[in-house]
Amino acid sequence: MGFAEKFVASLQSSNLRDDAFHHDLDVIAAAALAGDLGSLLCRVKYADGTINKLFEGNSGNLAQLLRIWTTAVTEKGKARRWVKINSERDVFTAHALYKRVAHASLAHWLDGRCKCFNGTGVSLKSLRACVTCDGSGNAEVSCSGGFERERIKDMVSELLSISTSHQGRANSLLR
Question: Helical H runs in the chain?
Fold first, then answer.
């Protein structure tokens, strides 16, 4: 069982006591102690209803994550020189691009499943692979331009890297 599954299972625990016989809070505590942006990513994706949608999550966490991620994407975009700044208009264009990339990459990372067949990638009626996602269950990043699509894919991989690193640190705290 991976860290994400342990985290979701601990959220659904009926007994959150922490004593010699009950250890359901260990995963949640490890996720919090692992720190950095990964902790907030974990909370938003797994605890605030994005995965199981059984309850209304804390929208404040999502708003905070969006602000932090937009700032991070802006810094990365400036450092990687996605847009050449020659005039004041270029500054506005660049910030609009950074914001679109941040929003789209976070949305795709939170729920990047193919909408056909509910992200399974297979039709249960015909038992054939989905044509849209080629049976993977993962949706393609959709946007109008190739330049922006590549930046979104890059930032989705950054989010995945942050999340994987955080889960590794949290798993090491569980040992």
Answer: 3-11, 25-33, 36-42, 59-80, 88-110, 146-174
pLDDT digits (tens, 9 = 90+) for 130-140: 777 777 777 78
Rounded to two decimals, the pTM is 0.76
Specify the length of the chain in residues.
Answer: 175
* Helix 59-80 × helix 88-110 angle, to 10°: 130
Report the half-sphere exposure of 93 (CA within 13 A, side-chain side). 11
pLDDT tens digits for range 10-59: 766 666 565 555 556 777 777 777 777 888 888 788 776 645 455 556 77
Contacts for 39 with CB less than 8 Å, ≥ 6 apart: 31, 32, 166
Token pair belonging to 156: 């989705």
